[in-house]
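User: I'm writing a tutorial on reading structure tokens. Could you give me a worked example: one chain, its sequence, then its tokens, then a sentence or two explaining what the tokens reveal?
Assistant: Sure. Here is the example chain.
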Amino acid sequence: MTEIVFLVEDDPDGGYTARALGESIFTQADDLKTLREMVRDSVHCHYTDEQNCPKQIRLHIVRDEVIAS
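And here are its predicted structure tokens:
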């Protein structure tokens, strides 16, 4: 595997959540900087064999924005 993609969303309670697409990896953090560290750590914990660990981690950040009509 060369890349793993995480869907990053605002957490209703504050902060952010990130979940991997196609893998059972989930993490959360209060800010994006910490979330990046948590995602990297979660991936390395999930893939204990360095050969199977993805070379790239992509964060797909989704934000809802509401505007008045």
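What the tokens reveal: The chain has one domain: 3-62. Helices lie at 32-46.
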